[in-house]
Write a structure and sequence with these properties.
This protein is α/β, with parallel strands linked by helices. The protein has a single domain (about 15-270), classed as 3-Layer(aba) Sandwich (Rossmann fold). The chain contains 11 helices and 8 strands. Strands 1, 2, 3, 4, 5, 6, 7 and 8 form an 8-stranded mixed beta sheet that branches. Strand 4, helix 8 and strand 5 (about 190-195) form a beta-alpha-beta unit. Helix 1 crosses helix 2 and helix 3 packs parallel to helix 4. The structure holds S-adenosylmethionine. S-adenosylmethionine binds near residues 18, 56, 80, 106 and 135. S-adenosylmethionine binds near residues 79, 107, 108, 134 and 163.
């Protein structure tokens, strides 16, 4: 473990996104407060929430496989990693190219406590974990683990999957994404999934907004226009900004009701100019 990692206290009384996500995925690393928060989301938004998180996780796997297999990417900066579960980024990338290198970043101390399960790199590749906050991209970029793990003269895929909606505020996510992408060389990629209420009826969107306003949701939903703006200056890979389930689905993938998907996906490439 990198000694520069800061170990924050685990607060079991406050719901945290990584643990709630783990609960919805059927994992076992969550506390009562995370389950209560997860159950409230399901009460307000409907039981499709669990379908949505699986669809999101499937997207992560498809996007990493696409980048490794089709675009030859061998380096990944995965911020908002989540608790280790099936098909972590390095496992997917290294199944295509064992020399793949992955730096994981998350701000949840419980993820740090479980990070050992992410440090199971192939002998040819490398993985590392840093506890840091996406709201301070420079701290991530200056962490010695970054230079130890990734060669910033070679393309890197920046993975921001289901994390930017924890950066609240109109226009608040864009400068962070830009700061990170500006540091990566031409040929690098950006992968984003982002929660949205674009697919649900207005009354459900309003119920979620009420939860947010009352401090019972930490998810700042963005619409397609705002998610598209995150890719300014990048070339969008086909099929562009689409619901998570519709980004290069497996041929036999069952159709999913978009109300359950509740997320936009985009993958963009940084060009030379
Ligand atoms: C919903 S999970 C997504 C996990 C994984 N990316 C996936 O899609 O399967 C969101 C993760 O982002 C992390 N997170 C939330 N806000 C963050 C921040 N400001 N900085 C770093 N990580 C953050 C949470 O701790 C959690 O692990």
């Amino acid at each position: 473990m990198d000694e520069s990692n800061r170990v924050a206290a685990i607060d079991p009384d406050k719901p945290h996104p990584a643990r709630r996500y783990n609960y919805w995925l059927g994992g076992k690393d969550h506390f009562a407060a995370d389950r209560a928060s997860g159950d409230e989301f399901e009460r307000i938004l409907g039981p499709g929430v669990r379908i949505g998180v699986r669809v999101n996780r499937d997207l992560l796997r498809r996007a990493v496989r696409y980048l490794a297999a089709e675009e030859g990417i061998r380096q990944f900066l995965d911020i908002g990693t989540g608790l280790p579960t099936a098909d972590n980024t390095h496992e997917v990338a290294q199944s295509v190219a064992p020399e793949s290198r992955v730096l994981y970043v998350d701000n949840d101390p419980l993820v740090l406590a479980h990070a050992r399960a992410l440090l199971t790199s192939s002998a040819e590749g490398k993985t590392a974990y840093v506890e840091a906050d996406l709201r301070d991209p420079d701290a991530i970029l200056q962490n010695p683990a970054l230079a130890d793990t990734l060669d910033l003269t070679q393309p890197v895929a920046l993975i921001l999957v289901a994390v930017l909606h924890f950066i609240p505020g109109h226009g608040a996510a864009q400068p962070i994404v830009r700061r990170l992408m500006d540091t990566l060389p031409a040929g690098s990629f950006l992968v984003v999934t982002h929660a949205t209420t674009d697919f649900v009826p207005p009354e459900i969107a309003a119920a979620h907004q009420k939860m947010y306003d009352e401090g019972r949701s930490d998810i700042w939903a963005r619409d397609k226009k705002e998610v598209t703006a995150l890719f300014e200056g990048l070339e969008l890979i086909e099929p562009g900004i689409v619901p998570n389930s519709e980004w290069r689905p497996e041929p036999d993938a069952p159709e999913v009701d978009l109300r359950h998907v509740a997320g936009w996906t985009g993958v963009g490439r940084k060009g030379t100019s």
